[in-house]
Amino acid sequence: MKAFKLIAAVLAAYLGGLSGTVLLQSSSTAQDGETPANKMVVKQLHIVDEKGQKRIVMGVHDGAAVFYLCNTDEKPQVAISAGKDSTFIELFAADKGGSLKATVKGLDASIALSSKERGSQTGIFIEQDRTYFSCGQVVGSKSKAIHSAFLGIATDGAFLNLAKIDENTASQTTGVLAKCDRNGDNTLRLIDSNGKSIWKAPDEK
Question: How far apart are CA 102 and CA 91, in angstroms?
Answer without folding.
Answer: 9
